[in-house]
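INFO  loader      accepted 1 record
INFO  loader      residues=309
INFO  predictor   begin
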Amino acid sequence: MAFFLETLLGGLMAGMLYSLVALGFVLIFKASGVFNFSQGAMVLFAALAMARFAEWIPEWFGFENKLLGNLLGFLAAAVCMFILAWLIERLVLRHLVNQEGVTLLMATLGITYFIDGLGQTIFGSAIYKIDIGMPKEPVFVLQNVFPGGLLVNKEDLISALVAAALVAALSLFFQKTSTGRALRAVADDHQAAQSVGIPLNTIWVIVWCVAGITALVAGMIWGSKLGVQFSLTTVALRALPVIILGGLTSVPGAIIGGLIIGVGEKLSEVYLGPMVGGGIEIWFAYVLALVFLLFRPQGLFGEKIIDRV
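INFO  predictor   done
INFO  writer      dumping tokens
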């Protein structure tokens, strides 16, 4: 029982990180109808910006406080993501309003490669480290309940809590603020939202900024765990099954989908992997996504598309 719970907790913590990346896809698609393939590149760019600014700023101002350097690096990276979001809306999306979906898709692919190249040009192409002080060693918990306790990785636990806090903050933002309600109105009907005075271009900038902040937090966490390297762009591929499972237009779906896939990957690898030689964790999410595409393409919480003739 203890081993099962350890595996379950590991899956839940991994699932929260998947949900964090998937949120960027969902937010942008809900507000603009754009499937943002550049989300993975945004995660990499944000992680590079934080890693390099956290290194550069103490050198520029002559102090050695690592915590202050990380904080200022995070703020500088956030400013970079805001500027990047504004430029994307101003230079690309504004000129592609009401275009075909494939046109918008190709635009985000172009943005992906541009961001990859821009990040390498500005910040370099080496592997960088983000050290935000998260403890790496595991800890035993619930020793009074289970013999020997449950082994939990502190870094994974803190990462999952940070991701959960950001998800909760975004949910409150969408539900309780006037800007959040405007975002939901734009997601429901662009033309109706414009007719009541909601500025569509401003909303798109806000959405891309919010997606940039989620990319920054995701990049900070993944960069702390794995190091900041260009393979971080593949994190977005891990989020694709999440949004297929949860629904492309559902914020709760991104959360639930991430948790289901995180838990499913861990449990299938541990309990079914030995029967087939392992490797289930690599393809489990994509097979599950394929099943949903065949039998419920809108996902668990997505809106069913009805074509009337």
